[in-house]
Structures are given as C-alpha cells and as structure tokens.
Automatic annotation (TrEMBL):
Keyword Membrane: no
Annotated site residues (Important for acyl-CoA specificity) in this chain: 111
Originating gene: metA
UniProt function note: Transfers an acetyl group from acetyl-CoA to L-homoserine, forming acetyl-L-homoserine.
Molecular function per GO: homoserine O-succinyltransferase activity
Active site (UniProt): 142, 233, 235
Pfam families with a match to the protein in the record: HTS
Protein name per the record: Homoserine O-acetyltransferase
Organism: Enterococcus pseudoavium
InterPro entries: Class_I_gatase-like, HST_MetA, MetA_family
Length: 309
C-alpha cells in the first residue's frame, strides 16, 4: 500500500523516482481501510534528508499510512527553510489532543550536551510524556533514544574516547516479535560520541534486544513494549556516513574514516534488509495492537502498564 503525502511534499518526487509509491489525498480517500496515523518528530538539522530516509522505509508497508511531521517550537531550525517547516510541519500545540498509532523521535547531533542544556528539552519532555497515553508505540533513534532512556528510566549518557562511527555487528540477545526474520548477527550504522550507562539498565524495566561486539546495548525495549530505543541508524542511506565523514573533515574535526564501511574504496550496504524488516515488522505490529478507534489508546496503554507491573 502506498504512503500518503501531499502532492508538493519534497520527498515525494525522490521516492517516486525510486519506484516507491506515494498517493495523493483524492486517491487515498477512496480506500475503505483506516490508514495508520504516524507522527515523526524530526530533530535533525537537515530535515528533508531525514524525511526521505524514514519515508523510504515506512512506505514499504502494505498498509496505507498518513504521516504528520512535528517540529519543536522552542528551537529555530537553521538548516531547513522556514517555508518548508511552516508548510509541512506541525507544532505540539496543534496535535496535543490527537492520537497516533506510532511516533518516531529522531536523533540530533547534540549528544555531547547535557540534556538539560538543550534549548528544547522541556518541550521534548512534554512530548515524551504525552506519547505515553496518546501513541500506541514510539521508536526513539540515536540521541532520541538516549533522551528517552534518560527521561523515562534515568539512564545517563557516558562519553566515548572517540566517536563511534561506522557500521558494527550486533548480536540478538532475545527473540522478540519486532525482530522476526533478523539474522542472529546483523549490522547497524552508528554515529555518536556517547553511549549509555549500562550499569543503570534495569533488566526488569527494559529488555536488551541487541548488543555489539563490545557488549554495548544497541537496541532496548521497555517492559510494557511501548517504547523502542534504537541507538543506531537503520534509516541511513548507503552514502550517509561518507557525507558525515567529509563534512566533519571540512569542519576541521579529527574524525576517522567510518569503520567497516569502505572495502577497496567502495561502500557496501550491509544493513538495508534489516532496516526494511524492522520498520515493516513495527508497522505491522502497530496495526495489530492499536484499537480501530484511536481515542481508545489511553485504555490500551493503561492495560499494558498493568500487565507489566
């Protein structure tokens, strides 16, 4: 089933060129099934690139999907035009009384700052709190995952000696339905200066789904299965790490070449299949779990939390 986008949404032409289907509102309204309602809180500076990355993955579902994009009102974006944001993005005040099947909270290149020093931290906390009863399932990515783990579970960041940058092998620790079809060992892109304090991970409140070869947690899920924390970037395109590397070098940063990425000068994508599989599984799971009437989500969440206590 194609993803539903506004006719002049910039990512639409890119996805169509890749033979990924997108339909307009008039055609979508002729379909009888209820579309999934997704919300993407896009915290990345280059918002259009992140839109393309995520839409490329979620559009592979056989379900019709309506996507809203959310921006934080307490931060002025510098790398995306105001016209784009005003036209295609909502603020929290506009959706706080709305229910969604799923929410994606992206990363942000600010992991070296204390959470409380981020200018939009209070607003992000408000959104994360709202999501606990207004959204059926939340995927947190990279810094968004660290922020969620800190706010919901008190897990602090820890700095790395050098940037974790490249693609790294991950080992599945548990058989969980969102990772059905995954290889026991798979690859995931990473681009961050910090990890999480593993000693603060409470196994009763969080399930560690995957770890890397250094025994660092890379995927965690809350006990009530509502929140998924991806510390890496399944959504990255093949050349994303190369672009980040070249950008860092232009800025004079001593960033090393991404690990396990170049092979005789050529880039091979080892994570594409797992990326599509994860988002396909997640959307299917959200479709199965969420009530047909979205306003019933708070009751679903309360029942989940009761079962997990």
């Amino acid at each position: 089933m194609p993803i539903r986008l506004e006719p002049d949404f910039p990512a639409k032409s890119v996805l169509e060129a890749e033979d990924i289907f997108a339909i307009d509102n008039s055609r979508a309204e002729q379909q009888d099934i209820r579309p999934l309602k997704l919300l993407i809180l896009n915290l990345m500076p280059d918002k259009i690139t992140t839109e393309i990355h995520l839409l490329r993955l979620i559009s592979q579902s056989p379900l019709q999907i309506d996507v809203d994009f959310l921006k934080v009102a307490s931060h002025q974006a510098k790398h995306t035009s105001k016209n784009h944001l005003d036209k295609f993005y909502l603020e929290f005040s506009q959706i706080k009384d709305t229910y969604y099947d799923g929410l994606i909270i992206t990363g942000a290149p600010i992991e070296q700052m204390a959470f409380e020093q981020v200018d939009y931290w209070p607003e992000l906390v408000e959104i994360m709190e709202w999501s606990q009863l207004a959204v059926s399932s939340v995927v947190h990515i990279c810094w968004g995952a660290q922020a969620g783990l800190y706010h919901h579970f008190g897990i602090e960041k820890v700095p790395f000696e050098e940037k974790l940058f490249g693609i790294y092998k991950q080992d599945l620790q548990h058989d969980f339905r969102l990772f059905r079809g995954f290889d026991d060992r798979f690859w995931m892109p990473q681009s961050r200066y910090t990890g999480i304090n593993e000693e603060q991970v409470d196994q009763k409140k969080l399930q560690v789904i995957a770890k890397d070869e250094e025994n660092r947690s890379s995927i965690l899920i809350s006990e009530d299965e509502h929140d998924i924390f991806l510390l890496g970037h399944f959504e990255y395109a093949t050349d994303t790490l190369e672009k980040e590397y070249l950008r860092d070098r232009e800025r004079g940063l001593a960033t090393a070449q991404p690990e396990n990425y170049y092979e005789e000068g050529k880039i091979y994508n080892y994570w594409r299949a797992q990326a599509h599989l994860f988002y396909h599984n997640w959307l299917n799971d959200v479709y199965q779990v969420t009530p047909y009437r979205l306003e019933m989500i708070p009751q679903l969440q309360k029942a989940r939390k009761l079962r997990s206590t």
